[in-house]
Amino acid sequence: MDNIINLLNAAVAAGTPLLLGTLGEILTEKSGNLNLGVEGMMFMGAVSGLAGGLAAEQWLGGAGVMAAVGALLISFLAGALGALIYSFLTITLRANQNVTGLTLTIFGTGFGNFFGEILGQRSATGFAQVTQGTQAMFQPIHFGALSDIPILGKLLFSYNWIVYFSVALAILMAWFFKKSRTGLNLRAVGEDPATADAAGINVTRYKYLATIVGGGICGIGGMYMCMVTCNGIWVHGCVSGYGWLAVALVIFATWNPARAILCGIIFGGLTVLRMYFPIKGLATQFYDMVPYIVTIVVLVITSIRQSREHSQPKSCGNNYFREER
Amino acid sequence: MKKFVSAFLSFAMIFSLAACGSGNSETTAAPTTTPAATTSADTTAAEKDTTAAATTAAEATTAATGDVDYSKLKIGFVHISDPSDKGYTYNHDLGTQKMAKELGLDVNTQIINKYNIPEGAECGTALRELVDAGCNIIFATSFGFENYVLEVAKEYPDVQFCHATGYQAATSGLSNVHNYFGEIHQARYLSGIAAGLKTSTNKIGYVAAMATPEVISGYDAFYLGAKSVNPDVTMEVMYTNSWNDPTKEAQVAKALIDDGCDVIGQHCDSTAAATTAEQNGVFHVGYNSDMRDAAPKASLTSAVWDWSIYLEYAVNCVAKGEAIDVDWSKGLKDGVCDISPLNDSIIADGTKEAIDAAREKFLTSDWDVFTGPLKDNEGNEVVKEGETFKEPASAPSFNHILEGITVKE
Questions:
Q1: How far apart are CA B363 and CA B240, in angstroms?
Q2: Taking a contact as any Cβ pair under 8 Å apart, which residues of chain A between 201 and 240 contact chain B?
Q3: A90 reaches B (C-beta below 8 A)
């Protein structure tokens, strides 16, 4: 029993960066843009978040809340910058979305590692690290009596603030797509931009905004890798494939932000499963394969069911030419 | 307006592309290569400095053999990560800097580092680039580099290649390939004492990289150290299957802590295990570097290397035209490995005394860690009573998982 609780707890911690990357990519794909640059934007967010935290410590005086806010904002902006490049290339210049996304991944990985190394070389110790006070900001919050409730306390009230932030964001996004006028318009753009255009929706503006905000959310996911998983130290290649997992997770979650919460926890759980339930003699590599096998199975099942509700936005991957309507 | 916006965006894009371009060239060129744009005045000044320093250093270190000219040497390094790991590469780099200082080398012109080289074909490329840059001696520091070292060394018999943790130099038939490592198990034994005295659950966790003899003999020694002061202690080992994967290291450490371990030891490259231990309020014994900065409330001590001793030896050999040992290994007695300063505010009472006593035993006698009777975890006797297992070569070969250790996989 304890083992299951511990596994769930670790799964949430491992799943949160995946959830953020997934949410960003869902928002992007709902506008009809397939941005494969999640990994790159996460790297940009990771290094910028660290730099933002360090800068806030240096200039705004002091570790703690200001540094955490700085890390959040700057990582969002960095992810958004990556998405802006992508948007300009695909929406305005109508470049191929797949190729542009892949390029963004390569660019972002280099961006992250390059500036991460510079941060390290500039610091006196030889590696970039935020101060103790800022590190404490990213550690699990203790809710007093609530956190001490057996089982429930550990399951619900023992995480850092980004975990709660991303769950709230997922719920907000689910509401946005289902209930708000803007969200419905955005879905129309993703399904059929020509019809949306005819209905008077500004397709270009919607695509730009959704992609940029989506990139920003991916950036926050990268910041989680750097500030929480690596405890505010720049580690070369710290995102290490989580961005790609997030792209797979979008399919697994069938483009539904609320479901993404659950899927993020499942995927996070699968990545740490072998540490809690080891099977003697089963090679650990098999465990590492499981998330991807699950993705393939989900792909097969969704394509067999051919459910329109659970499929990719129809125009996703295609650029919109008004002249070709 | 529209035109203005797209002009602005194009500008932003070009700017970021430029940033990307410089990023690429910088990373491949490695931070310590000579900037091409140095003015001639600067260069001569730097050269003067180097020669001046080199002569003084040479006088100090090689007084017996007379003048040795270090100024023509160029030294290359291939590392699997970069000093930001605050672990293996960081510590090896400290050794490089110390060696350069002792011998009076100019780190900007005479030493070329290749960081973040994967254990694949990129390693061969990096080695060839170092040869092309004029290196006389090249150090490759990760286990998986060995085959590439052998391949490239065959093509360039005039360049000396030194590979850490490997085992094939002696059998390769190449006179320019050398292995080096040390008796790190002695330092691990000492660091294990700190863990054994600190644990209150009598259960130690160990984040291990891969199931190779180097790692296995390392955690055996660590466990024997803990057991020497705490006979009831048991240990759980979990592998990350990677030398350097901070995310996995943190997750494995967390899983061990969840399983009831209250001191975490490690054989992996980064500080992730240390910071995870600190976040969860347990203690940690590190490897490679003093991790008290990264985890001041958790890090008890670390088993550390002083690589400068070997680096100085090998570079001196090249400078004097002497042969380098084909297989070099030294331990605590020569200061090649030791533990980092104890974290006095959190170590258990009596830790210092117990460690000093054990150190005394290493320094004054022939005693070593793997002294019988030792059983593996299936009950087979691996070292008989009264016998001591001594590593025959620099690369560790003690490959038995000892009684009291559980491997979770």
A1: 34
A2: 225, 229-231, 233-238, 240
A3: no
Q: Across the interface, do A110 and B24 touch by the CB < 8 Å criterion?
A: yes
Kindly report the pTM of this predicted structure.
Answer: 0.81
Q: Considering the domain A2-317 in this protein, what is its CATH number?
A: 1.10.3470
Residue A127 to residue A121: CA distance in whole angstroms: 7
Residue of B351, B152, B155 whose CA lies nearest to B163: B152
Distances (CA, A) of A56 to A42, A180, B2: 20, 36, 35
Which domains does chain B show, CATH number per domain? Answer: 59-182+307-333 (3.40.50.2300), 184-304+338-408 (3.40.50.2300)
- A255-314 pLDDT, tens digit per residue, is 999 999 999 999 999 888 888 888 777 777 788 788 888 878 887 887 888 777 778 899
Does ipTM exceed 0.95?
A: no
For chain A, percent helix, then strand, then coil, each to nearest 5? 75, 0, 25
Best of B20, B247, B256 to substitute, by most chain A Cβ atoms within 10 angstroms, is B247
Shortest Cα–Cα distance, B390 to chain A (Å): 31
Q: Does A315 touch chain B (CB under 8 A)?
A: no
Q: Looking at the complex, report in whole angstroms how far the Cα of residue A216 sits from the nearest Cα belonging to chain B.
A: 17
First to last CA, chain A: 59
